[in-house]
Structure formats: structure tokens, C-alpha cells
Design goal:
155 residues, alpha/beta, Rossmann fold
Length: 155
């Protein structure tokens, strides 16, 4: 990751681990923190009701608008799941360095059937699309320490 951009985007196949690690990294680097999932949930308020009353197309337009807004943030560590990464990849490219927080399959959330079924494909895709790949080291503190060590050595 030679070119440092204004933001760091962390994508992880376990959203809880990704958010926890992103928060700790933001704090350690004195940056802001944003969770795409939390912001979309806040902005749309009741996703199910919006889809039911307004339709999927309207929801996706609203979701894209929120991602465009997040892409304009500065000095921020942004946490995304796989789906938001795919939807916002082109939006985030200008201002974000992509970090993939790589897990072992057993570290996926218990109820995350889709990521478990498609684990190998998604893991490979994210490994190729992200500038840096870090293996999750059993807790977010150790993972953040290894990310910071690499970031500081590459400056």
C-alpha cells in the first residue's frame, strides 16, 4: 500500500469482528470511525418497512446515496461487510485504502450461512481486491497492533 489515502476501509466476512477491529484501529490512529451497516440502518430507519412500502429499487437508491455520503468522509476508518464492499467499491476507491481482515471459516458468525457457503470464493475475491490483507489474530487488539506496525513501516 504505497499511496496513502484519506481513509481506511476494513472489510471482513464477520461484521462484528470487522466493526470491533475498525473501532480500535480508528482510536489507535486518532481517526474517526464509521460503520456502513449502522449508518444505513440509521438513515433508512426501518429497512423492512421501506422495502415493503416503497420497493427494493427505492431502498437500493437510498442505500447507494448513504454509501456515496460515507465515501466523502475524511480521516476515517470505515467498516463494511462483504455486500457493502461490493456495492460501494467504486465509490470508496478514491479516498480509501482497502484492508481485508481475513478470518478462518470457523470465525464466521454462527448465523452467517451465506458467507459460510461462499467462504472460499468471497475470501479469494477480497484477497485480490484489497491492497492489504491481515489475518485476524484471535482478538482485535493484536490485529490492530499488526496493522499499525505495517502501516508505520510502509510510510
Amino acid at each position: 500500500m504505497k499511496e496513502y489515502k484519506q481513509n481506511i476501509l476494513i472489510v471482513c466476512l464477520n461484521d462484528e469482528i470487522g466493526q470491533e477491529t475498525s473501532k480500535k484501529l480508528a482510536e489507535a490512529l486518532s481517526m474517526l470511525y464509521a460503520s456502513c451497516k449502522d449508518i444505513v440502518d440509521y438513515e433508512v430507519f426501518d429497512v423492512r418497512a421501506v422495502i415493503e412500502k416503497c420497493g427494493m429499487e427505492y431502498f437500493e437508491q437510498k442505500e447507494t446515496a448513504v454509501l456515496e455520503h460515507i465515501a466523502d468522509y475524511e480521516n476515517c476508518v470505515i467498516s463494511v461487510d462483504y455486500n457493502y464492499f461490493l456495492k460501494g467499491e467504486d465509490l470508496f476507491k478514491k479516498k480509501c485504502n482497502f484492508i481485508y481482515l481475513k478470518l478462518k471459516k470457523k470465525q464466521l458468525a454462527f448465523d452467517d450461512t451465506i458467507n459460510a457457503i461462499a467462504f472460499e470464493e468471497r475470501d479469494e475475491e477480497l484477497s485480490q481486491k484489497c491492497e492489504m490483507v491481515f489475518e485476524y489474530k484471535h482478538n482485535s487488539t493484536k490485529t490492530v497492533e499488526s496493522i499499525i506496525k505495517i502501516l508505520r513501516s510502509e510510510k
